[in-house]
């Protein structure tokens, strides 16, 4: 549906401004936005632009749960958020999927999770069962019904959170970064589901940093910048402009020492016949891999394909059930983790899993002092300079932006000067600008002689930046031949605005 | 400690029956300090678990109980002198300090009684949790007119214990990748906790707001719930309640005689 065709207004924000308690700068600055029933609006923008605050405002959360100064008018299905008694009442009209999937999973099995909201709607048992089955099928989680949320992968958790919200059957849906951790297949399933819901009259507001498949199904796209709407337009046209402004030619691939081809020279990582079993489940089944010194290798694959399990063998966090892993001449099956840490650094997906120190400099010094207690401050400064954070060295690490925290996590490893740096999903949750900064850092590290292995479900990232993409499926390497320019799935992979094109398929009007 | 999907006899009981069972075991365990009666009580819970095919899940708590028992034993020996002296931590043959820390029968009895009491209570609670879906417990607690906040606190505690364990493991791995080495000695060990505890607490607090909002948006404070599954009590529940009634009566009779 296009806004011109009319339709009842599902959600309306008029001149909405908001300043968080204790802050002097407004997070929202006179935002006006309308969402009609059956319409999908895609909102994007850089980190810190106010996208999540927009979601909180539109769902009435700012008014009912946050302090701060809120101005303007917000209505849901024609009713002001001020007239709702509490969030429980709003929840009957608006479903919200937050960006932290884990925090939204309350129950101990997936089925309970999806059923939990249904039991509060006054439906008959038959209706509940029917809706439960339909939602679980549509989101592809039917086979996870008895699984505990903490045992799911990030992508699976995200699908369960979406299913539990959609099951409520609200007429307005607000989704904050719903596909950040989803692979191409799951993103396509979520897109199809949202399209169907909009066809049934649901108004859908999607907020995403990366312009991908969900933008292509939207009727309208808005760009949020500095707490205001900077631009509104037709998604296909805006994406096309983005492609023309920033053609992806593979030029992003960093220059550096000529990377040897696989099989040439002495490999810095050598994996032979690797098998890994978790509690009887085979996560890696007979895998061989060699990584040459100075290479940038992307390990790509869908959620649950064994990517992270593979790289955890490189620094001894996991030991092979069968087979061997040699890194920089050391047997990673037997050498202590602390010793391997001198040779291999692993940057985890979420930088917050490691940040604990009072200052950025202390955070970086932690790993360095663990391997060299007498180390000077020079390597700390050098690592911070490398990632562009030297000016923040006295800041509290958790006060940094998401992108800065990611670069700090890289600096923590760089300071230890390992020969190999492994990064697990290095750009998840980052906007195009921050993703670009992180990838620039990796380019420089490669020029300095480091070997880089990055785990990603974003094939486009690998195609642009890596010398080689290793594609995994169900614990096996299914393609180790190089880039995947011709892979059909690439066309549906999410991509960063300003960095790569997206083959837009416009949504046909309802 | 988490719900385990299985088709056991205990699973099939009404959640209220299981809740009453746990309350009865806790009450009986608190009412007596007699080690024999406490042993019978803990043993009975284990027998029920074995009969329901849930023994293996219960046995996971044994290492914790053993640690608790050893700690209690050490504490009672060091602090209680009651009854016959049956030995000494430092043999009397040792010069100067020989005969220090006498081990008395009263101290051992108390440690044993407290350990058995904990075992009975923990096993009963464990049986309730692993055999009952949390949303069924929520429905029962609703019917008992428990304040919704307490019900949700209970639910969240159950749900997030394994998540916290997992997050702790993730943080530990991230610090190991930075050659993290827990310090030596007590001070070192305490200092060594910071790199784990600080991210764990900070990350958990960050999730609390979203968790609260999700609970509200799903209508958990509305107080109008329709259980998806039929939660009517069956014959097994009637039989179970009758058995518990008899056990309580017998237990009280023994205590009062």
Automatic annotation (TrEMBL), chain A:
Compartment list: Cell membrane
Disordered: annotated span: 488-510
Keyword vocabulary terms for this entry: ATP-binding, Nucleotide-binding, Transport
Gene Ontology molecular function: ATP binding
Lineage: Archaea, Methanobacteriati, Methanobacteriota, Stenosarchaea group, Methanomicrobia
Biased composition (Polar residues): 492-510
Residues of the ABC transporter domain: 11-251, 269-500
Domain of life (superkingdom): Archaea
Record has ATP-binding as a keyword: yes
Function, in words: Probably part of an ABC transporter complex. Responsible for energy coupling to the transport system.
Pfam families referenced in this protein's UniProt entry, alphabetically: ABC_tran
Signal peptide coordinates: none
CDD domains associated with the record: ABC_cobalt_CbiO_domain1
Protein name: ABC transporter ATP-binding protein
Keyword Transport: yes
